[in-house]
Amino acid sequence: MKLPASKLNSEIPGQESSSLGDSTDVPPSPGDVEYWTSSYATPGFAAGYAATLEAEGWSGTGIVDSQCTSGDTVVAATLATVATSRLRIGTSVTNSVTRHPAVLASAAAALQAESGGRFVLGIGRGDSALAHIGLAPAPLAQFERFLERLQMYLAGDDVPFDLDTDMVGGLRSVESLGMTGAPEVSRLRWLGVVPPQPKVPVDVAATGPKMIGIAARLADAITLGVGVDRDRVAWAIDLARRTREAAGSDPSKLLIGAYVPLMVDDDRDAAREALRGHVGSYARFSVMQKGSGGPVAQSQSA
């Protein structure tokens, strides 16, 4: 079985990424694979860089969302959308803390409309975006609940108020105002007044088994951060597909990709040096919760 429409991410902007096979040793055909690379929300950078990537033939670019270390991701994605006509644009990745699900869904749906259906909403539990406001990554339960609400907003559904989650810091419910005709549910009401677009696909960045499970049940795609060891990638793909099937959804409809730090250079040592920090960062994601999900070879153990 081939990976369906897999998305392979290269972490180094402007560098090539490699294709990813599965346990059958049958490689995906070129039409089934997308090649993405990272981008940054630095003001004055996003539009020109997106145009360059499109000219180079990339499938898409994922823009980093880290408000204290870069510019605003939604602004950058908007500029990248205007500067291109084919390149897919995404967040790589946003998180479940710094924006309310209605706010994030509205921004994503607007980008989908403006881009003609080219936007992908990449999301995870948060790393530098949360660290720089003093927080650890979001708890799994918080992320799962956020993802449920986000998908409902993106589908145009009525979303029940979640006052237990949203009433923080002394906020009160709208009922306390005694308003006539006050909204009783939440929904992106403006979706019905613009030309329809496909629902924004939600792509979850996942490393551990619990996060892979949440993504398999609730997301449209998973991008794996488990490295490029064949056994670990195969384990993660199998887990995602089995979880998806157990939840009553078609596993063949789940898009699967991987973050692949890659540098092309005539000098192997120079390429390795350029990648050192990125490889270390991805390795950290696999062990930051005091353990490592999936198989680990003896040579990879500390």
Structure description:
The chain has helices at 46-56, 73-82, 101-115, 128-131, 140-154, 163-166, 209-218, 230-246, 268-287, and strands at 6-10, 33-39, 60-63, 88-91, 94-95, 119-124, 202-206, 221-224, 255-260. It contains nine helices and nine strands. The chain has an eight-stranded parallel β-barrel, surrounded by five helices. With 302 residues, the protein is α/β, with parallel strands linked by helices. It folds into two domains: 1-39 and 206-302, no CATH class; 60-165 and 185-200, TIM Barrel. Mean pLDDT is 88; it is low at 1-8 and 10-25.
Q: Any chance you could write out the topology, listing elements then pairs?
A:
Elements (H helix, E strand, L loop, with lengths): L5 E5 L22 E7 L6 H11 L3 E4 L9 H10 L5 E4 L2 E2 L5 H15 L3 E6 L3 H4 L8 H15 L8 H4 L35 E5 L2 H10 L2 E4 L5 H17 L8 E6 L7 H20 L15
Parallel strand pairs: 1-2, 1-9, 2-3, 3-4, 4-6, 5-6, 6-7, 7-8, 8-9
Helix pairs in contact: 1-2, 2-3, 3-5, 5-7, 7-8
Helix content: 25-40%
In round numbers, the mean pLDDT is 88
Strand order, sheet with most strands: 1-2-3-4-6-7-8-9
Our measurement of the CA-to-CA distance between the termini, rounded to an integer number of angstroms, reads: 34 Å
Quantity of strands, as a count: 9
Q: What is the gyration radius calculated from CA atoms?
A: 20 Å
Helix- and strand-based class? alpha/beta
How do the helices and strands follow one another from N- to C-terminus? EEHEHEEHEHHHEHEHEH
List keywords for this structure.
2 domains, alpha/beta, single chain, eight-stranded parallel barrel, TIM Barrel, disordered N terminus, globular, 302 residues
